[in-house]
Task: structure prediction
Amino acid sequence: MTATARISNRIGSHWFCPGEICLSLACLVVPFGAAHAAFAADRKPVLVELFTSEGCSDCPAADALLARLDSTQFVPGAIAIVLSEHVTYWNDLGWKDPFSSADLTQRQAQYESRLGLSYVYTPQAVIDGIHQAIGGNVSDLSREIAQAATEPKSDLTIENPHWEGDAVRFSIRADAVPHATLMAALAEDATQSAVARGENAGRTLHHVAVVCTLQDLGMHATDGRPLTLKLSTPQEKLTSRTPYRIVVFLEDTRSGRVLALAQQSVTR
Result:
């Protein structure tokens, strides 16, 4: 295992710090027996938001780690519910990330303030809204997820999610929690992109749970009322085989801590 670090740089009004621990894929493989034993244990859901960009050369390793976390669930005691959130501040450095969103860039900026950081960077993982780690550092990421899994959460259930045109309809049942708002994300389960320019030029990048819509549904949306998440992609570009997942979580409006969460697949 080797470590690499680069000094932080400023892009316009944004800061990035791409230093990370470089890991071989062998470090990320969980033997079948260990994985089976881990899945037999009690687990708590933990939200892992990865702030990433196709314009950042340090991000593909973090994207791969997020995908492995999603598929193997290698942190004992936790069920990692993952979201890949692509930011915009790399877009003027040679490659415009087709999955990037100004709203997700703003969400990361809010975490900068909440977590007491002096800059934003990619790849950054935010865990349950109150922990953070370099997105490609498997040991730090695992430690923060394991810590989050020890913290209590309320129950939350997604009811009857289904497509109607270019929107997902669903309902949420959860206990009333003071100072909590309901956040809902619609994420494409798996995407890939052939990068033509920038730091990752010539690479085909793969992503999992790419957020295309993230909305604040308010403080009174957990009583079973009908709710809607509209997809921004035009309906004619979708196929019946496009896999999506809906991720819903209660977020403390004061601290940002995730108090309850769940996910469900919604294939068209």
